[in-house]
Amino acid sequence: MRYFPIPVVGVGSQPETEAVDHLPLPSEMTTFVMPTVNLEADPEILEATCAVLESLRSAMLDNGDAKIELTGLTSDVVELINQSLGQGEVSVIVRKPGNLHIQETVFAGVWRVQEMSSQSVVLRDRMHACAIPPEVQLSALSGTTTISGPPIRQGMMNAPAILNELLERSKNYRTGESAHIINLSLLPMTPEDLAYLYDAFGTGTVSILSRGYGNCRITSTRLANVWWVQYFNSTDQIILNTLEVVDVPEVALAADEDFQDSIERLGEWLAVMREHYV
C-alpha cells in the first residue's frame, strides 16, 4: 500500500481561497476491474495466497465481518495479496490514538488496515471485511472535545444558528441513528460564516478521501459525531458542502449489496488464481 495525502477540509478548501494539495481527480465514474497479478509466481506462493483469500471469503460468507492478520506472512505472499486486492475508492488516515492507514481494495467492503510507526514502518497489517473498520468511528470520537462558539464577527448570517443546532444534535445523537445533514451549499453563507464554523468545529483525528465520480473529502471534527463532507467535481470545484451528524458518513461506507457482490467476485478471482497452481 502506498501513502495517500488527504487535505484538511474547512474554510481553506473553499474555491475562493488558496488551493489545497490533493490526489489527482478521476474524470469519470470508477468501475470494478479485476486485479492484475503475477500469475507466474511460485506455485507455493500462489497456493498460500489463495488460502489466505479463501479464509477471508469464507468468513465473509459466515458472518459478514472478517479479520485476517497478515503481519506474520512472508513478504512474497503479502506482495501477491497486495496485487490480488488492488486499491479501491476509499482511503482513510487515522491519526490518533494510533497512526493507521486504511485502504479499501477493489473488492468493496474489503479493507487493508496498517498501523504505521513514526518512521512509516508497518507495525501491523491485516485485512478486514466490513462496512468500514471500527477504528474510524472510535478515533473520530476520541478526538472530540467540548466546544463553544467563537466570538461573533461582522458579516455573519447563519453560522451561530447552525452551531447551536449541531451542538444539540450532537448531544442527543445515539449510535446507529440516521444522519442529520445540514447542506451549507443551499444556505446563505458568507465567508465569515464559514470561518466561524471552522473555528468552532476545527478538524478531528480522521480524514477520508472517497474517489468515485469526482472527489469527496470527509473530515471528523472536534464535536462528537459531526463531520465535514465536501464534494468536488472533476475540475476540483466544490459542488456540495455539508456538515453531517452520524457515526460515519454513508459515502465512505461499503453498501450491503456491494459487500455481497465482492464475495462473488472474490470467488471468481480465486478460481482464476487456482488455475495457475493446480
Overall shape: it is elongated
How would you spell out the order of helices and strands?
Answer: HEHEEEEHHEHEEEEH
Instruction: State the fourth-level CATH superfamily of the largest domain.
Output: HupH hydrogenase expression protein, C-terminal domain
> How many structurally independent domains?
2
What summary fits the major beta sheet?
10 strands, antiparallel
Stated plainly, the CATH topology of the largest domain is called Ribosomal Protein S8, Chain: A, domain 1
Broad structural category: alpha+beta
Q: How large is the count of helical segments?
A: 6
Give a description of the structure.
The chain is an alpha+beta fold. The protein has two domains: 42-138 and 255-274, Ribosomal Protein S8, Chain: A, domain 1 (2-Layer Sandwich), CATH 3.30.1370.140; 144-252, HupH hydrogenase expression protein, C-terminal domain (Ribosomal Protein S8, Chain: A, domain 1). The protein has six helices and ten strands; from the N terminus they run H-E-H-E-E-E-E-H-H-E-H-E-E-E-E-H. It has helices spanning 43-63, 75-85, 135-142, 159-172, 191-201, 256-274; strands at 66-69, 90-94, 100-104, 110-116, 122-129, 180-183, 206-212, 214-220, 226-232, 238-245. The protein has a ten-stranded antiparallel β-sheet with strand order 1-5-4-3-2-7-8-9-10-6, sandwiched between helices. The longest helix is centred in the first third of the chain and has 21 residues, at 43-63. It is elongated. The model is unreliable at 1-32 (pLDDT under 50).
